[in-house]
Write the structure tokens for this entry.
Amino acid sequence: MSRVAGDVSRYVVARLVLALAVLWIVPVWLAIVAGTKTQADYASTGLFEFGTSVEWINFGMFFVEPFNFGLNILNSLTISLGAVLVSLVIAFPVSYAISIGRHRLRGLVLAVCILIFLLPLESVAFPIYLFSKMVGMYGNQGFMIVTLGIVGSAFATFLLSNVMRHVPADVVDAAQIDGAGRWVTLTRVVWPLMLPTVLTVALLLYVFNWNEYLLSLLLLPDTSSYTVPIAISAVDYGQRGGAPGQLVAAGAVLGSLPSLLVFLFFQRTLVRGITAGASSG
């Protein structure tokens, strides 16, 4: 009876995963189909229908004036990766202190992290905007990187500290008995054990930073500093003389490609690292 129940549960889970995959793939497929149409085909054909010809030029137009999409991708990469680095530089030592180091303020630190994580970004966006004006950093990508890095460090600290609590105490004690200081223990012992989790957190933060819209809109007013989401939103869906819909679809596809490539590149590394960590544990 239990075997039948297990088979049924696996069947249900498999169908749910398949349904979720379809829900995720359909919008991407619609954007690809729309991005390869001419303007006439876009207006006359259905959502799932290809046009009479494939217009790859729709994608190429984003890399020439007036779009200059390559610069937008570079801006998003710089901000996303820079913010991930800031988040991990802050979160990893703090997580070590409140988990392995058993710092007395562990509860307070985690409470603050949860508060920052749950606090809607819209509620603090305007104060951040005013602060950037006060310190003369308005329109500066560095300020954007530090801001996103601090926000992301709360999420990273919460996850890393909870996983770091399960690092075997015997390993840390053995390192300290051998004369390793806290820095050596942190970098030579704990870091290798935590690497799969760090990569997972970094990937999640990267996706969050790449898709961030509100702060980019408020803090980066110059067109030369636009990130990918802002650049796509600036395309006007064919209204008021803006770009037609097929170009918007092509831009959406191009904007998702860097994140997809990063995920595909790290996916095998993450799976291998997590599997190795589970087997060693």
Observations:
- Residues 1-55 form one domain.
- The two ends are 32 Å apart (CA to CA).
- DSSP finds twelve helices and no strands in the chain.
